[in-house]
């Protein structure tokens, strides 16, 4: 194993070196870095040109410039990065740190959302192959594959962000619209939940009646400007989640899984009251510590009460605990929302990664970052969600054709056990490697999203760098994405070997 | 056997069970079909793929015949370089909503897609962009497919150091993100000549890697087959073994990936044009049209909608076409059969319960 990793790392480093050389030569030959100064009429033109030549070391031959860059970049291995200076003489290392943090914020969230939702949709469509749901989802995935990103982004800005902001200024939904929404929700829900014709009918009618009533009630409460949840709703939602997670993993009959999950629900309520005043004005550390608690305590409960089923008990309890914690946070966000609307009238932003000079406390900044993140995240998530659901679907179908699945069915296991215990686990092996590639690819692929939404991330650094024929930022971008690609490739191989005992390295 | 075959229509005359079974088998194998015929039949019965084929043909015919191409004149009366008077704010005159639905009835009018800010006919502009996008897609698809197939086949057939070198070169192209490499090369191509064919060739040079890996994998397993050993033993030249025996057997993978490469190329070109590293101003493409008019969205939305819709239509149909081809080439494909359905959370539905 170690020999394999060392060999792969060695050849990967060689490839990275060759690629950096290739890219460097291509970039410095792609245009004239002094073009804008040659055409300018400024008095100090000669001085500016001399200054830029000095910044970019243009007098040196190309191999000399590359060598300078390489020695600087290789210092990264000992923690003293020197990635050169950009066209304006600014140290690129400093720029890179800011750009990378804003890109990571964008990409990590989008990847996680896309992976979770995409896998869920993929499994569902594989289970119901050739159903109406399958056809619709297939069509939508192909549609998302075929969208030019920036075109979709402009539509998203116009129809989602701007019209939501307009609507929020005076939230009104007419009775006719709410009935139409109810019917659409009913149609979608009955398709997702499935079952016999009678059950689908009940689902449809229940939601077609229930949703319009809820919409009108929420308007009456002025929910969209003054949202509120409160402990009662938190507890109901958490309990529902606990029940359905139990039903999905082992079935409601298994008390050894159900009871730890329900105890976690009670603890969530207790923690809600215990932390209420602390969470009115928290900081990042408190939230992080709370998240750790929300994982550790349920895990301990599940571990001690689960007995034979401790693994399932632990995961169900952790899901319940984390969801309870998330709902508690959402409750506090709801409390902060009206105040936030006072400082930022049109909440869903279309440009930038944060509002400049925003006043307010922790939650206001939290909401501000969140609302700025919303649009690009939706865009990135929708596009990679399409590929996740497609891969999961074909992987699930592939696995379901195999003999051991037929064996599992024929020995009388329930469909739930067959799908989640036998089929799903093996279908996830190729998905784990795809997720690794996808994450590495998204860092480089967010160039357009960043440009459209005006984020000062790494993609923007690359695009402006290339525009000015400025190798330093382009190479810094490549250093990060190339290293990420190699590391995640290696990680994918190792994960594959660990998950699939048939693979020996 | 021959008697059984003659009695196919009257199975009641058969005396033994074995003969009945024989008759059934004979009936199944009644019409032998060639491999190509089977694939074609499967493809024709794939409805989305057939619809996409028709859509693609219609778009292509419209794009090339309406404003003409090269020396051939088109039937559309206006061209994309003449500015004129802006009529009615340049609004599109196309209307498809019949009067009884509250629309203006069916009419095409003078400028069906509207006019741009200087009064050029937008239909002609969009058709010109469509032509260029289709040309780019096809050229990129061709170059990438040929390169990928040859490199993958050579690498898989010879193995050893040839494979090692070619695959490291492939890795080189995979380590640099596609968009980055394409942007740098696109900028260089734009700086030197600015023609779309150069851009397309350059894009083809960077998009072959995925296919090369796939073809290499296929060839690695195919070259161990007996018929390849037989061909080698009979003294076939290496090139003959590769091009006559190995590549035709990987045609399925190659064709399917070529279609996806075309869709990918059209989208890649639009992204590059948006970033300013792709098609440059005197030339035109759908991506360039969108990026030129994206700020006109609130005032003249049609300038933004039409090129985008056409890109989506082309890419969507090419993707569906590729999907249909993949299904058609898949030997495991057996007719559509509904699986047993699972209910919510995969809990057994009522029917399944004992």
UniProtKB/TrEMBL annotation, chain A:
Pfam families: BPD_transp_1. Its main location: membrane. Residues 100-496 form the ABC transmembrane type-1 domain. It is a multi-pass membrane protein. Keywords: Cell membrane, Membrane, Transmembrane, Transmembrane helix, Transport. The chain crosses the membrane at residues 106-126, 133-153, 173-194, 201-220, 232-250, 257-279, 285-305, 312-334, 373-391, 427-448, 474-499. It comes from the Bacteria. It is found in: Cell membrane. Belongs to the binding-protein-dependent transport system permease family. This is ABC transmembrane type-1 domain-containing protein. It comes from Glutamicibacter nicotianae (Arthrobacter nicotianae).
TrEMBL record, chain B:
It comes from Glutamicibacter nicotianae. Pfam families: BPD_transp_1, OppC_N. It comes from the Bacteria. Keywords: Cell membrane, Membrane, Transmembrane, Transmembrane helix, Transport. Residues 130-322 form the ABC transmembrane type-1 domain. Its main location: membrane. The chain crosses the membrane at residues 49-72, 134-158, 165-184, 196-215, 246-268, 303-322. It is found in: Cell membrane. It is a multi-pass membrane protein. This is ABC transporter permease. The keyword Transport applies. InterPro entries: BP-dependent_transpt_permease (IPR050366), MetI-like (IPR000515), MetI-like_sf (IPR035906), OppC_N (IPR025966). Belongs to the binding-protein-dependent transport system permease family.
